[in-house]
Write a structure and sequence with these properties.
Blueprint: H1 7-16, E1 47-52, E2 56-58, E3 75-79, E4 87-89, H2 97-101, H3 109-117, E5 123-124, E6 127-131, H4 138-155, E7 160-164, H5 169-183, E8 188-192, H6 195-201, E9 205-208, H7 223-237, E10 244-247, H8 250-259
Parallel strand pairs: 1-5, 1-6, 1-7, 7-8, 8-9, 9-10
Antiparallel strand pairs: 2-4, 3-6
Amino acid sequence: MATIEDLEKYSKRFARWSGDERLAGYPFVENVNAPLTPLRRALPMLNLGLISTAGAYIDGTEAFDVDSRDGEFGFHEIPVEVEADDLRFAAKGYDPKAVIEDRNSQIPVDRLLEYEANVVIGHLNDVWWSTSSYIPNAAVVADELAPVLSERLARYEVHAALIVPASRLCHQTAALIARRIESDGIPTIVISVDRSVTDSVRAPRTVYYSGELGSVVGPPNWPEFQRRVLDETLRTMETFDQPGSRKLAVELQSRVEAARGER
């Protein structure tokens, strides 16, 4: 299935876009159909891959170029052993304050390692993948970035991928990457706080709630909230029998927690 169904139409619309960094008049991708690959392993048997679009890179390595009109289409492959203090962020379209304070608000490595230790998942893949937070040219995401990322997941024998966008624009990037990976036979799930974008692109599996750009997995230093988002996300991934998006119940649960004085 095509990552962008009417690529010619999109490319013409993108060529007319002014390049406004606030995305005024930006031509978000519009797809009708979506691929779906069945999840063939239970969570405790999964090698789970993590893809972040927060623009993270290791201090001392090259940062993503966020000034290009098209955006940068490379990625960084980061070992899970890399500490949060060693990460830097080329952030555009979102405020990096939360992820700098607590990377798990956007890049939930520590939460997922806890899940591995408690056999919620079988294994968090040995590396995770980081893309730019600002890639306006969706055609190149579809043609260049998504296929290479999909190949890397296959090489690592990843059984399913969790994809976490950071900015509004990278909700589109995340959904396009998910479509390609899923078309290549690996199940995915995207956490969204901007359902209008992920639904327009038609990511195969999306969960959404009224969260914040820049802290899509949950507020910084609130591990209970982050676990709640991740737990419901991963368990929901098992239940999709057709492409679509489903709302998480984390907001109601967190209001109850706050009312009890537990937060």
